Automatic annotation (TrEMBL), chains A, C:
Organism whose genome encodes this protein: Sphaerisporangium siamense
Name this protein carries in UniProt: Alkylation response protein AidB-like acyl-CoA dehydrogenase
Top-level taxon: Bacteria
Coiled coil: none
A Pfam entry, by short name: Acyl-CoA_dh_1
TrEMBL record, chains B, D:
Every Acyl-CoA dehydrogenase/oxidase C-terminal domain range: 227-370
Species whose genome carries this gene: Sphaerisporangium siamense
Name of the protein in its database record: Alkylation response protein AidB-like acyl-CoA dehydrogenase
GO molecular function: flavin adenine dinucleotide binding; oxidoreductase activity, acting on the CH-CH group of donors
Annotated Pfam families: Acyl-CoA_dh_1 (PF00441), Acyl-CoA_dh_M (PF02770), Acyl-CoA_dh_N (PF02771)
Keywords: FAD, Flavoprotein, Oxidoreductase
Length: 348, 375, 348, 375
């Protein structure tokens, strides 16, 4: 047992943090100017878009831990690129469906594909159906969803060129598109072979985990920003960080963020290492923990920043908005807890 | 102990309700253009004034009716209940003026304040002086028969639309910080005054910052003695508005009804968890309402506003923020996908309730003082 | 509108506080020595046991406000006498049933009667039925319950001499007896006339209110004790009350106790002044608020007392135990909230 | 990163499980008589020692096996899983001795500590020195070749049954308070030692106070140099046991299963609210377990125990106390009427978790230090 990043994983973390640092906003207006294309190229060049493609033995090039490391770093940087949508959720779906060429294509960084979620953002969309969202769709030409068939679910590709309108989502760092009506069956192109139920659950475990990692990154960075502010801001002739009330607010937020990190690290390891039921339970646990504390942690950060933390110009609410949206994606604690209960109370 | 209206209060309330029902401008809350909304609020101030509803608890000699603050509370309550436009806030500025101003200043400033001809803002906080107001740096240097003001104010609510400002500035940098501050009554149209709206996280302009560059104020517009500014500020702050004074309680009730409606629309009323959460929100609102009634009763009984107001402020922030959390829990993704964007905006608007007017942390400090806990 | 105690009510508060002060424990071992009989006599002599008897016009001698004032004072003192059981809950039940002589008899202080509650302590027992509890039964010869009849509920008296055994309840300040089996119909003696449904709801409003008042007293006194301790206890060379973390713990507990007081004061006034539905809603609101915060407030008090606050010898847990038990009596927030919801969501 | 046992760890775990299953004394947790329970714990210590399970991570030269602390963690985990008696706590006393003792002291004290012949307690806190340990007043005055100790210690867990005590006392009242403290290894059978159990709010004797009246300690039983007591204490405290080291996590899981059972018995498993609360409790336990695994991994990688332990302590208190709240919510009145008296006792036993070993407030201070926040 050694629940620590390996040296290679530690290096990966630094690479990802460096890319994130160059592409992350310091305040909301940076979101208009930051060079998203350059960030995406850097990710591609560093091989980070290829982590969930498969090697010659059919094994993922990078483990769940590695993808989570990257996801956390990009979350911490509030980086406005569709790493989760394209490089993880869509790529993994393609790889599981055996559409390896399509997965490889995404890893080169030229084309981007994301996923369609149902109207609650709580599950991969099963088409045809009612309104759907393309989440994390920046620069994506198309998005993946499922259709139900006799041999299991079939991955289908839907072009985003028509039938979608931009939605004014809460998250200022991701592009969200809303279908302007039901998706016509004629617009669905099957990709790869049908997915087994297990493959789909494995996908869900990975997806929940990387979203949790994104939340962890958002929270850790937000807390770090707030703590740094308490070391600069003077009131009553002293740094506000010397007030015990402020110290304890920060300490509580820090503990919750770290606790979420512990749960997410395990889920990330479990993705490729445990049987699918255990991996999914670990992922639900991580998502529950992250979703449960994300609102309070980012609110605490806004509170520590005081007046300026309430303003649109300030970065604080960008953390809050990304965390609040991530909470919903593939289901917040209100969705996860009943499923955990099902396993605990009837499944064993 | 009686929570009911006295016969006089009941009569007042009945008349008021009738008047409000007949007078509230239809569709005022649908106005999207900000300037038009401001104009409407000014008009509403004048309308209320003409009907005798502004400054009811002020002394008669200053244009008030010398009534108990209960009448102001009833006005607040019924304005909320009947969905009237926001009430003008004349209390804290008026209090500062009629406690500290010269006779001439009173004659000059009180009537237009009451009537709504002149609207006011409060230039207290600064970027480096938020909770720690006494650290303010905006300086007023005496130059002949004028003061020359330079500095920057923040969180000057209504600064964009105000005609006048109750300004705090440092007139003596050489004495302890609480003692070197003076208060001024300044026109916002003076050269050198620049106002910049502050947009809060909801995306709405809720307040403003004001830049003061060589703004000249005649000496006779200083309020009180030089160095008396801190005392004036503390009086003003003590009369700042709590939840009872801004129709919050009535608004809370209306918002709760909307949240109940959301739950119904989404078919969630069968869920015991949701039912309990809605009932809990009702209890929070009731508790705050009843606590405010007790505090109002103390005020009516002649006790000056004291640190008990901090209790209401904490309950207020908790109620408002919890209700927005509940709405978010009911709306789920819709609040994040833009389908219910108005609720996301309300959520962000609820956050500063625990910051402005003294953060939750400051309120707890005040309560600890009240409990006579050691410094 | 004037939501303040009148001068007379203020005087009553002082009288009750004085009696409470002489009969309240300073530490748990005092509960063995405190002169309960003397305290009861003082209450009788001051006329406080007679508040819910009726005057010649059939009006209660003392309003809900007055009973709540006394209940709060006795709660604050942790006084181990059955004021709630005998002087309020039983007396009111007798008065509502028109059994005025029996009510008068209790007010003189010689005889004591309490009430039987169901096994969840959440309602007045309806007999015959399963196991019941005689709550707040110190020195009581008998207890009241209900039977269901064609004309409404009938108050019945049950002797506590046989068929009851002492229960080791959490609350060290009240006597709790458990029936050792179902209560035989032969043991029930009807008292007074059948109660209307409205009378029973009115009783419930009063009962919930005085229990809330007891909790308010317990909480206020506990917080006051903790605050006083922070002004004596030195650690790190300073009074612990000078630590902002301790100040904020106390401030939060104080706010919750005061908020409960506000809700309870209104409910107390409502008992005799509003129509029964409104009075009951106010009572449920007060009980909900008090029950919701009682655990946390008394736990905070134990926390502020640090190590000694965790010991049996110390008074802190006596507050906790009384508050936790009061929470259950006639239903905690888990019972009240759904009923409030019924009114809000379907009743209007 | 690997959360699984290595092959060696897996083999150790399998052997251990087999051994435990065969060796755990049947019905040990049903023993009501306290002295008998103490005797059983001592016997269990000796049994574990003979099987090589005590002090596994100690250096070989001090009687240990020089293994990674992971093996201690596995022992804790499986002891909890299989319901074994509480493990002896030799770590923190052992650490103090093998870091600070003379060769002769090591030879004298370490073998019986390991073997279970001698059990130890820790005489640190005092009535006036709880969180603020450095203020301790118990005095040790040098008198020839003995120290004479006078004072009172509190929260001396196991004081009633211990053979020896690691005692802190002030040897020099004239220097700053942290510098005048020395540490001693004292027999609890010395004349002048009086132990009084402290009963906690649950009604159970959980700890003790110890009175020291003219207790004479030979100079050679001082640990470390005079005035080195504070450093020794800080080392010891850093190695005090966290949730991972006392089988808490395994116990938590067993308690959670019981609470799930309570909900099932009461027919509450259909209620979504209850299901979610139980799942929430599961998540709390998992989060704590995983956080502890990360910290153990850091320890294994050679990092000294640091302030990160405060995170686990806060999560621990929250998990334990929340689970008891949940049990109370499920049991309702039964917990108050004596029907489920054991749960009331567990509830009160959960309260000091946020007090002993550094209150929740102290843990947050430590985290603020770790975050390098200003003093």
């Amino acid at each position: 047992m050694l629940a620590l990043l390996s040296d290679e994983q530690q290096m990966l973390k630094e690479v990802a943090a460096q890319i994130a640092g160059s592409a992350g906003p310091s305040n909301p207006s940076d979101l208009n100017t930051v060079d998203r294309a350059a960030a995406w190229r850097s990710l591609a060049q560093a091989g980070l878009l290829a982590l969930r493609t498969r090697d010659d033995d059919g094994r993922p090039v990078g483990s769940g831990v590695e993808v989570a490391v990257v996801a956390e770093a990009l979350g911490a940087g509030l980086v406005p690129v569709p790493y989760l949508g394209s490089a993880v959720l869509a790529t993994e779906l393609l790889a599981l469906a055996g559409a390896h060429d399509e997965a490889e294509a995404l890893s080169e960084g030229d084309a981007r594909t994301t996923v369609l979620l149902d109207r609650h953002l709580s599950a991969l969309a099963v088409l045809p159906g009612e309104q759907v969202y393309a989440w994390d769709a920046d620069g994506a030409a198309d998005a993946l969803a499922l259709t139900a068939g006799p041999d299991g679910h079939q991955v289908v590709r839907v072009s985003l060129d028509t039938g979608f309108v931009p939605a004014t989502g809460a998250d200022l760092t991701r592009t969200l598109l809303r279908s302007d009506g039901p998706i016509d069956e004629a617009r669905l192109t099957p990709v790869g072979r049908p997915l087994s139920a297990e493959a789909l659950l494995r996908w869900e475990a990975l997806a929940l985990t990387v979203i949790s990692a994104d939340i962890v990154g958002v929270m850790r960075a937000a807390v770090a920003r707030a703590v740094a502010y308490t070391k600069e801001r003077v009131q009553y002739g002293v740094l506000i960080g010397s007030f015990q009330a402020v110290q304890h607010l920060c300490a509580e937020a820090y503990v919750q963020a770290e606790a979420s990190a512990s749960a997410t690290n395990y889920a990330a390891w479990a993705v490729d290492e445990l049987d699918v039921a255990e991996a999914l339970m670990a992922a639900r646990t991580a998502k529950t923990q992250a979703a449960l504390v994300a609102r309070e942690v980012t609110e605490t950060v806004m509170q520590v920043f005081g007046g300026i933390g309430q303003t649109y110009e300030h970065i604080a609410h960008v953390h809050t908005r990304r965390a609040l949206t991530d909470r919903q994606v593939l289901g917040d604690e209100g969705v996860q807890l009943p499923r955990i209960a099902d396993v605990r109370l009837t499944g064993e | 102990m009686d929570y009911r209206d006295t016969p006089e209060e009941a009569e007042f309330r009945a008349t008021l309700r009738e008047w409000l029902s007949a007078t509230i401008p239809a569709g005022w809350d649908k106005i999207e253009d900000e300037l038009e909304a401001v104009r409407l609020r000014k008009d509403w101030h004048r309308t209320l004034y003409r009907a005798g509803y502004v400054g009811m608890s002020w002394p008669v000699e200053y244009g008030g009716r010398g009534l108990s603050p209960v009448y102001d509370a009833i006005l607040n309550e019924e304005s909320g209940n009947l969905g009237a436009p926001p009430l003008p806030s004349v209390g804290y500025i008026g209090r500062a003026i009629f406690m500290y101003a010269s006779e001439e200043q009173k004659r000059r400033f009180l009537p237009p304040l009451l009537s709504g001809e002149a609207s006011w803002c409060q230039g207290f906080s600064e970027p480096e002086a938020g909770s720690d107001l006494a650290s303010l740096r905006t300086a007023a240097r005496l130059d002949g028969d004028h003061y020359v003001v330079n500095g920057q104010k923040m969180w000057t609510s209504g600064g964009q639309y105000a005609d006048w400002c109750l300004l705090l500035a440092r007139t003596d940098p050489d004495v302890p910080k609480h003692k070197g501050i003076s208060a001024f009554l300044v026109s916002m149209t003076e050269p050198g005054v620049t106002v910049r709206p502050i947009v809060i996280a909801s995306g709405e302009a809720e307040t403003a910052e004001v830049f003061w560059d060589d703004v000249r104020i005649p000496v006779e517009q200083r309020l009180g003695a030089p160095g008396e500014g801190w005392r004036i500020a503390m009086t003003t702050v003590a009369y700042e508005r709590g939840p009872a004074d801004i129709g919050f309680i009535a608004n809370y009730r209306r918002t709760l009804r909307k949240v109940e409606g959301l739950a119904a629309e989404r078919g969630l009323l069968e869920k015991e968890e949701v039912r309990k959460a809605l009932a809990r929100a009702y209890v929070r609102g009731e508790v705050l309402r009843l606590n405010c009634m007790e505090q109002l009763s103390m005020r009516v009984s002649g006790r000056a506003p004291g640190p008990e107001g901090s209790i209401a402020k904490l309950l207020w922030a908790d109620a408002e923020q919890s209700l927005q959390h509940l709405a978010m829990d009911i709306l789920g993704a819709d609040e994040m996908t833009g389908v219910a964007a108005g609720w996301l905006s309300s959520y962000f608007t609820s956050r500063p309730v625990s910051v402005y007017g003294g953060s939750a942390q400051i309120q707890k400090n005040i309560i600890a003082r009240m409990l006579d806990m050691p410094r």
